[in-house]
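Q: We require from you a single protein entry containing the residue sequence and its fold in C-alpha cell form, and nothing else.
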Amino acid sequence: MGKLVVVKGDPVTGTDLHNVSGTNAQGSPYLGTGKFAYNGSVTAQLSGFVSIGGTPVALVTSGSSLGPTETATGGHGPLSGKDFSAPGPAPNSPVSFLDTPLGAGSPSSGAGSGLLTVDGVEVLLDGDGFDTCGPAPTAAASSVAAQGQDFVTCAE
C-alpha cells in the first residue's frame, strides 16, 4: 500500500528539546534543558512546479514552522516545558528559551520518497520524520502527517 504525498500546510507534530533558564522553587537560578511539544505545519521551500489540487507539494528541502499561538503561551511556549534535566530542581514557569531560531523544522535524514521526485528532489511522504527546533535540532522527534490531500500516493 502506498503512502500519501505531503503538501503545504500538513501538520508536523512531536517533541523537541530546548536549552532554558529560569528560577527553581528554592529561588536558585536554573540552566538546563526541557522538552516542549512541537505543533507546526509544512510552510516553506515547497515545490513551485508540482501541486496537488492547487496546493504545492512538500519536498525534502521544505521546512516547517510553528503557528503564532504556539510560541506565546501555547504548546511550545515558556509555560509548557516538561522533563527538565538536572542540575537541581526543575524551574518554575515561565522559563526563557536560550535557543534561536524558535520554531523551524526540516525533514530528517532518510525522509522522502526514493521513487517520486520533483526536478530531482525527493517528495515528502506521510509519516516522514522532521528535525525540529532546539539547541541542535532534535533529530526525527517529530513527523509529518499528510492531511491536505487524500488521493495521491507513492508506492514505497
